[in-house]
Structure formats: structure tokens, C-alpha cells
């Protein structure tokens, strides 16, 4: 089960809440967040590039997308193992993040070239496990930006990065996410209203009933 959405949408908060709600129903839950900072060299390079390290690396849409994909590729076996050991595996961001952000950066839509490239690279070539479903935590870009900014003020080590401070990118990314959800890209999508709030108990029941 993959949670997707803009920076600051509340994905980590949802993952924590859902883990508790699923656990209360007796389900065993494992979770993993991408990029795997501190666990994969590719993820650490991403973070450094987003904070202006490594020269002009962050300017390359395909270069950055390749690093995110390599991080996931290194986790493929772990995901498979978690899947066989747990009822639910919750992933905070996955392949669709690459599709949404790369398309938004290149001003393409969900039918564009880079979204196809992401699929060919990560699904066809790297053989990453396909999710059963996506949860799109949908909030207006302005709300996500405000939450990310507040988090940056209160949590150390969470300074907003090059993508998070780019309002235009976040707006275009929201539009691509909506298109990916509407087309059922890679797996079915459930759209959640991240402003009204999510009924965790009802969501846990729905997910376990699938
Ligand atoms: N439903 C919500 N209402 C208000 N604030 C929220 C909500 N969900 C998360 N937040 C806050 O917004 C910030 C970003 O949430 P987080 O879960 O870290 O987002 P993400 O993982 O999508 O970047 C955090 O400070 C969090 O406490
Ligand atoms: C996982 C992933 C993230 N991203 C982007 C989304 C975010 O703007 C950025 C960092 O990921 P994020 O999960 O938001 O990390 P942080 O803990 O720093 O908030 O990387 C991609 O472009 N492709 C991907 O595959």
C-alpha cells in the first residue's frame, strides 16, 4: 500500500496513524519511507543534491529520478520479504513519486515521455514489486506548503529543500498526481481528503477488506 502526495501533505502522519489503526484491528504492519535517507547511498546523494550539493546534479530531472529509482531498486528484496511476513506493507512514497515530480519538473503531463520512462526503468527493468493500491493524500498546494514550512520551523534537520520551496513545481505536481490517480497508473488509487481529515478506522477496515 503506497501513500503519495505533495511535500507536507501529511503522508508520514497518515502512515503513523494508519499503522496504529491497522494494528488495533490485529493486522501486522511494516512500513518503509522513500527516499531511504541514512540507509542507502543513493538516497543520501539525493538529499545532498536537494540542499545544493554535487554541483548541478539537482538540475538534471533524469539524473535525480535515476537516483530515486536506484534507492528503490536496492529495497526490492526487502519489500518482498516484508510482504511475505506482514499483512500490510505501507510505503511512504514509491514509483509514482518519481513519475509525478519528474513530469512536473519537465512540464509534462501523466501521458508524457518521462512517466513512461519511469515505468520502463523501475517496473520493467528493475522489476520493482507492483503495489496493490495507492492512497493519494490530496491537499491544496498552499496547505501542503504551509505544513512543510511549519515542520521546518519546529523540527531540526527538516529544512525545506529545492523541491519543497518551489511552489510552481508543487502545483504542477498536484495536477500530475490527479491524472495518475484518474488513470489508475500502476495500481488502483484511492483519493483521500487531507484537509477534511481521514477517518483512520474506516480506512483500516476498507484496506483489510480488500
Ligand atoms: N491533517 C493534518 N492537519 C494539520 N496538520 C497536519 C496534518 N497532517 C500532518 N500535519 C502536520 O503537517 C506537517 C507535515 O506532515 P508530514 O506528515 O510530515 O507530511 P509529509 O510526510 O507528507 O511531508 C507536520 O508538521 C504535521 O504535524
Ligand atoms: C521518493 C521520491 C521522492 N521524490 C521527491 C519528492 C520530494 O520533493 C523529495 C524528497 O522526498 P520526501 O519524502 O519529501 O523527503 P523529506 O523527508 O526530505 O521530506 O523527493 C521524487 O522526485 N521521486 C521519488 O521517487
Automatic annotation (TrEMBL):
Q: What is its EC number?
A: 2.7.4.9
Which ranges carry the Thymidylate kinase-like domain?
A: 3-182
Keywords noted in UniProt: ATP-binding, Kinase, Nucleotide biosynthesis, Nucleotide-binding, Transferase
**Record-linked InterPro entries:** P-loop_NTPase, Thymidylate_kin-like_dom, Thymidylate_kin_CS
* Major enzyme class: transferase
- Tell me the domain of life: Bacteria
Any idea what this protein is called?
Answer: Thymidylate kinase
The protein's gene is named tmk
Amino acid at each position: 500500500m503506497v501513500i503519495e502526495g505533495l511535500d507536507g501533505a501529511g503522508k508520514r502522519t497518515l502512515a503513523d496513524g494508519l499503522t496504529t489503526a491497522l494494528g488495533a484491528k490485529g493486522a501486522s504492519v511494516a512500513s518503509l519511507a522513500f527516499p531511504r535517507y541514512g540507509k542507502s547511498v543513493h538516497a543520501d546523494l539525493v538529499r545532498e543534491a536537494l540542499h545544493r550539493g554535487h554541483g548541478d546534479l539537482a538540475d538534471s530531472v533524469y539524473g535525480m529520478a535515476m537516483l530515486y529509482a536506484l534507492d528503490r531498486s536496492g529495497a526490492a528484496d526487502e519489500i518482498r520479504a516484508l510482504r511475505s511476513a506482514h499483512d500490510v506493507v505501507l510505503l511512504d512514497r514509491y514509483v509514482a513519486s518519481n513519475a509525478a515530480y519528474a513530469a512536473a519538473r519537465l512540464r509534462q503531463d501523466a501521458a508524457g515521455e518521462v512517466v513512461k520512462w519511469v515505468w520502463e526503468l523501475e517496473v520493467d527493468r528493475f522489476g520493482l514489486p507492483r503495489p496493490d493500491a495507492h492512497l493519494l493524500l490530496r491537499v491544496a498546494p498552499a496547505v501542503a506548503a504551509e505544513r512543510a514550512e511549519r515542520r521546518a520551523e519546529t523540527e531540526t534537520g527538516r529544512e525545506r529543500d529545492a523541491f519543497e520551496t518551489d511552489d510552481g513545481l508543487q502545483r504542477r505536481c498536484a495536477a500530475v498526481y490527479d491524472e495518475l490517480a484518474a488513470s489508475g497508473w500502476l495500481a488502483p488509487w484511492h483519493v483521500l481528503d487531507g484537509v477534511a481529515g481521514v477517518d483512520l478506522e474506516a480506512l483500516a477496515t476498507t484496506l483489510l477488506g480488500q
